[in-house]
Amino acid sequence: MVPCGFRDASRYGRRAAFGLAFSGFGVLRAAAAGPVRLLALGDSLTAGYGLPPGEGFVPKLQAALTARGRQVRVLDAGVSGDTTAGGLARLDWALAEEPQAALVELGGNDGLRGLPPAETRRNLTAILDRLEARRIPVLLSGMLAPPNLGADYGREFAGVFQALGQRPGVLFDPFFLEGIAGDPALNQPDGIHPNPRGVAILVARILPAVEALLERVPSG
């Protein structure tokens, strides 16, 4: 997998600058209204690996939210080949954009490499802890392990996401590739990454959960 950088999925500018209003009673500061900043922290499934520009998950999610009248700026923190450890290592960098909500899609590469589920759980727990400390609402999207790793590993791996999805304040999407995985018509030739048809199905399926997440962003 070819690493991808951190990309802004929209053409919105930087957060509007703070205006200062002076009165005889002091200084009033008000932030200009702007789009909600939604961090998409993930791997190649988030980054749109193998797809033309504009056809990946993040730009399609951005377009779907815009079509729904949502003022949202999706921040693309998808890096192909990344494990949960990699996502944790670059989280502070991703948080520099000051997101107000986060979609976490990591773990697929942990499963493909057969990494210990306990390690995956530690990394995801640390990510969720850090987001919680910043009071950033989270949508955690789960992943399943490849069947060739055996039923025991598969149950333990899936259990990591199921357990973390029950954390207070966390919205849970059990399987990011639900309805897409295993269908040749919806995946690229590698059988792992969705093609444009698969991305369209993915975005339509997860959109209600993303909108529920955005409703948790404090207004004002």
UniProtKB/TrEMBL annotation:
Source domain of life is Bacteria
Q: Which CDD domains match?
A: Lysophospholipase_L1_like (cd01822)
Q: What sequence ranges are listed for the domain SGNH hydrolase-type esterase?
A: 40-200
Any Pfam family from its record, for instance, is Lipase_GDSL_2
Q: What is this protein called?
A: Arylesterase
